[in-house]
Structures
1.
Amino acid sequence: MVTIGDVARAAGVSRSTASYALSGKRTISMEVRERVNDAVRELGYTPNAGARALATSQTMVIGLLAQFLEDEFAPAMLQYMLGVSDTARELGYDILLVTEADGARALRRITDSQMVDGVVLLNVAQDDVRLPILRAAPQPGALVGLPGDCSGLDVFDLDFEEAGRIMVNHMHRLGHRELILVSQPEHVVERGGAYVWRLQDAALQQARVRGIRLHTAFGESRQPAVGRTLHALLDSHPSATGLLLNNEAAAAALPTVLHERGLTVPADLSVIGRYSDEFARTFSLSFSSIESAPDRLGRMAVRQLVRRIESSDTAAEPYVVRFISPELVDRGSTAAPGSRRDGSHSRRPQ
Amino acid sequence: MVTIGDVARAAGVSRSTASYALSGKRTISMEVRERVNDAVRELGYTPNAGARALATSQTMVIGLLAQFLEDEFAPAMLQYMLGVSDTARELGYDILLVTEADGARALRRITDSQMVDGVVLLNVAQDDVRLPILRAAPQPGALVGLPGDCSGLDVFDLDFEEAGRIMVNHMHRLGHRELILVSQPEHVVERGGAYVWRLQDAALQQARVRGIRLHTAFGESRQPAVGRTLHALLDSHPSATGLLLNNEAAAAALPTVLHERGLTVPADLSVIGRYSDEFARTFSLSFSSIESAPDRLGRMAVRQLVRRIESSDTAAEPYVVRFISPELVDRGSTAAPGSRRDGSHSRRPQ
DNA sequence: CTGAAAGCGCTTACAG
DNA sequence: CTGAAAGCGCTTACAG
């Protein structure tokens, strides 16, 4: 491999001059700079990342901790990852992707060994075991997802409470008075997925305010289980006229369930989901939904992280907790409650 | 940060002895080893990755080049990524994730700067611009996807030709004589997505052998376009009794299309897709499919890559091109052609 | 405006 | 069985 020594020799200057010519950190005569640049081009020189990291204590790499848990919907995670990855690259950073099941151990490994200048944590739980490790690390961290304790960290999340209220209000405005909310699997709640209860609690509260009956349930993350749950819920609450989904797998399974029951949206049932537009297009979901804006969240997290990495007086700036305001994307899946939920169209096998 | 010098001082030995005690690369007295290990534990020592990389010329990092192109189905990529990531970690490697649009430039950057010990390329095209760069790089590379020229690289892919034959043969055995094959968008072909024509050509060939009429078409990668294409194809070929899908987006869109047409699978139409079981469960697809085995392919690529990274005489072992034999996962979506394709069930809105 | 030298934190021949 | 020293390829005060 060609080193900066080779470049210096070819340009007839010292290694320090070659280095300065490339970094621009001190004034270099035009002529020398030209010679150095020529040498770089001819020899095909690229600085060795390890050596540079050792000398500067900067790796220009950001750690991305993603978790792919059995009971969550993997593709939703991808959107956040791409938001983080693309933004990092724009800002000059590469991404070290960590998908280990034991996120705490992995986090310790990459921070202790100084492989990264900072870390983005996805899918943060209420009482996330990775947080104490992140706080103790010398590198800054940014979270996507709201934990119970935000101290010492920058946090970004969708305003799930507002999302719950918007769902209920929208349905109320159309005249619905009985709704079903399908959340993520109960395991997600047990693991501390705060966004589940943040949306649900706010929706229940708002339903009370509006005088709406709101039935809540946890849905599975896979077929055929989640499909059966949807059937059971529709069976149990025949007078419900609207369905709210805070569960991507349920949204993906719903078209088939509707088909099996012979139901049409929104004539027979109004539906609002909570997922990204990208997700809707990819999975052919034509339900209106609260935009979860994973790309924006990933982008915001990286921007703030890089700001903190590059700010001289670390931890001088106050930490931020920032919520994205949810927006309802109308895909025409809601309407005034119809009169067609009489079961006559039902073609569900036994 | 605590360095090996701190450990050595605490243990009362030289830095080299501390290093050897940790690496086990020469015999160390029990007593000294104990003292060193105690010091490591007390001080919380972890080697600095950059320094180690500089000294050993090994980063213990593998580059993963994924492409998320507008006209391809992003979630399918995720499965390959996880197969690669999990296997790499098992073998002691971390993953540098590269998602840049300009894959060639990115590849050059991470190999030239020696950020990685080797590279896995996903979504390899017939005449992939990244390959010349990879061949010129000092690090070895493994491909998932078959290019036109495999020289100097280890290549892994599904046997798409056999997949095409299996689809046709399976339908033929059930009595089908007219089929439709929906491939990826034409853009994918133009970009050199060889798997598209490998499957299609083999299917056409086999259809000829079996005396089957096979209509082929390219499908879009998004709704609502791909749904419209499916409708149009079913309209144009009313006597076709089976549908073959080499297009994940089409598979995801099909349940809604079937619903709109009032068709039941397999009574009205037999369907075989080509995607992973993981994909089927995640997206609630109950069509039989050729397992695309992304996790296995990712795993094989990393295993071979690591073998090559760690083999002393690089390029001494011959390069391999290995195909996974496709297997049909029966989810009950095929049957003998029925008599219900008479249009009487059609409920498609004009 | 430029050069010689020290140092980042490791590993590993070279000596003993 | 252990230590002193060189070296990996950079960057950056320190001198001039």
Note: Residues 1, 3-5, 15-16, 19-20, 23, 25-26, 47-48, 50-56 of chain B lie near DNA strand C (CB under 10 Å from a C1').
2.
Amino acid sequence: MCLNRMSRILIVDDEKDITDLVTLHLSQEGCEVIAVHNGLEVLETAAKERPQLIVLDIMLPGMDGWQVFRNLRTDARTRSIPVLMLSARSQPRDRINGLEMGADDYLTKPFSPRELVLRIRAILRRSQKVSISDELRVGDFVVDRQNMVLLVDGKVADLTSTEMKLICFMMANPDVIHSRGELLNAVWGYADDTHSRTLDTHVKRLRDKLGDHGSHIGTVRKQGYLFVSNPRKDAAK
Amino acid sequence: MCLNRMSRILIVDDEKDITDLVTLHLSQEGCEVIAVHNGLEVLETAAKERPQLIVLDIMLPGMDGWQVFRNLRTDARTRSIPVLMLSARSQPRDRINGLEMGADDYLTKPFSPRELVLRIRAILRRSQKVSISDELRVGDFVVDRQNMVLLVDGKVADLTSTEMKLICFMMANPDVIHSRGELLNAVWGYADDTHSRTLDTHVKRLRDKLGDHGSHIGTVRKQGYLFVSNPRKDAAK
DNA sequence: CACCTGTGCGACGAGATCGTAACAGAGAGG
DNA sequence: CCTCTCTGTTACGATCTCGTCGCACAGGTG
């Protein structure tokens, strides 16, 4: 029931009342809040502190919010930081404008502090989900690389090392077709596109071991194989 | 300026007008859209299809949106799918309620379709890695060249590589007549204008696979074929 | 209407491509 | 030495793809 602990959030507004109010609520949620009051400060602070999120008011003295946003997106250090825009302008035209530029959310004043906190939480939930662990997950398939084990639906699938390399390579980019040459090169180190049935054989063995989940490995004629994150039912039979 | 290719989105609303409208806009963005109209369907479809995002109307007959949402969050298969809530109730109390439960966004009716698309894009941007695909788009037809897949109205059309080359070539210059020689050269590499029925046969197969949309491929006697971006309705029969 | 030319369409066969079973060798372990 | 597992290869059959053919049909012309 709280935001990720120690989330650092940068709030930008020229009205100190607003920043204070937001700071109060966010710090109650366990966030570290940095408040600044003009455009130039934002850019400096964002690049230096690397907050997890920026709450940006559009109406700022000097450099306005749009300009600040564009600058944030051109600096490699701040490019990927989510931005929640805040504005007194509530016309659909303005909201669309903000979202179109790439804002992650747009909230109009006056707003409920509670709603702001919740919207911030929603954004952080999605953007911080990047897993630090050394695991590869696609749907019900979880690869624990450390132990070289594949879990399907919570149950271990007993794969050999070759099969493991094969499915890992495909799972790394699910729903993308990998050509035979690509796979032979990645798993076997073959440079030339040999015409052997080796790859096919291992694909079959994989499908066999996956049982009902075998349809996750798809064939695209003339193109190659791929890991299908959402196999269709009618393809399973 | 486009959503991720092949994003599968589940839209839930009891009013068919709404789902149709949203489907239209999203399929133009290259999304595969699945529309359902009651609560039970949502749970089944979500677990089976694993969409990248769910647009959920709160006012549903039978099981209401809140209950659907809770069920989505308790099923391991659907727990991590982002949800954008849609509702006619615009009170802060309702918005907060939705966000508090863990929705990723909350939009009130009436809404601008453009804003909905943008908000969906914002969520997807954060929840999945962005990949820029080279795609070819004409009207409701979206070609994902990397995966050799054609999406028509958000649904995949299963084409062979020859058919793919053919429609890509015509879509590259829609509403322009391509002579038989031009097409035979581009797709088959034939230099001489042979008098075989090869091209005709493949055109027919394409039209068959496109079903109702077959009228997008037009014939001009003695001149050649072309991709028609806006076929007349009376030609569809 | 008769005629001609160009296109639509079903069927067929050759070849490409993939799935599958069976086999043989390499290596580990007892 | 034997056994077992893993691996790569081969052979064969099933399936899919694609070009061609023959004929039907439509549009234009005289």
Note: Residues 197, 200-201, 203-204, 219, 221-222 of chain B lie near DNA strand C (CB under 10 Å from a C1').
